[in-house]
Amino acid sequence: MKPQQIAPVESSTETHKQDAPSVSLFITLLILYSVVCFSIETIPDLSAGMRRFLWYSEVCVVGIFTIEYLWRIYTAENRLKFIFSFYGIVDFLAIFPFYIAPAVDLRTLRILRLLRLTRLLKLARYNSALLRFSKAIALAKEELLIFTVGSMVMLYLAAVGVYHFEHQAQPEVFRSIFDCLWWAVATLTTVGYGDIYPITTGGRMFTFVVLMLGLGLVAVPTGIVSSALSAIRQEQESKGSGKR
Predict the structure, then answer these.
(1) What architecture is the 141-243 domain classified under in CATH?
(2) CATH code given to domain 12-126
(3) One GO MF term, please (predicted)?
(4) Confidence check: pLDDT of 244 > 50
(5) Domain boundaries, the chain
(6) In whole angstroms, what is the distance from residue 100 CA to residue 225 CA?
(7) 214 pLDDT more than 60
């Protein structure tokens, strides 16, 4: 029986030619510089000179990203497809807050400032390891979707279970299923904040079961993604050996 061939995972960046290493490095450093400036802006009592420097830095960064975005649209084989692709949307969101800020009252739309952090997603285009990871996620998306749905069901059942055991003993703590969901999240993820915990024998036994399930819950997606990464790496190595 012949081994099953792995179908190549298409990337939305394939609509463009491969960027030169120097350009990729420059954009990567620019993204990191932008994020550092964003963080510095949150420091209280900055001097007027520093705020002015950060403003001009933002203007320069946005200008370069805007040129890059327009260039990618111009050189794309299918421009509409690129605009609505993952990377096209990320590129747009990376510059959108700067242009929309003067037109709106950011006192009520300060969340737009956080969109600047989408520039970090641009790193996936310029880093081969991140590109392999994104391909692995795409390869295992069906398994991850099933796992996510199963996790949500397990989370709800855990909340219902602890509500059954603890509601009468701690009505002020486990008041409703929604309160119990917080306990279920902290327990299934094995974080265990300790701010809400069972005191009955049945509740503690149930918690033990949920904790054991939580250990597996953490391990399953790791195995799925690791297997997909291994498949992507083998595919790339086979392509590389075939070109020799």
Answers:
(1) Orthogonal Bundle (1.10)
(2) 1.20.120.350
(3) voltage-gated potassium channel activity
(4) yes
(5) 12-126, 141-243
(6) 38
(7) yes
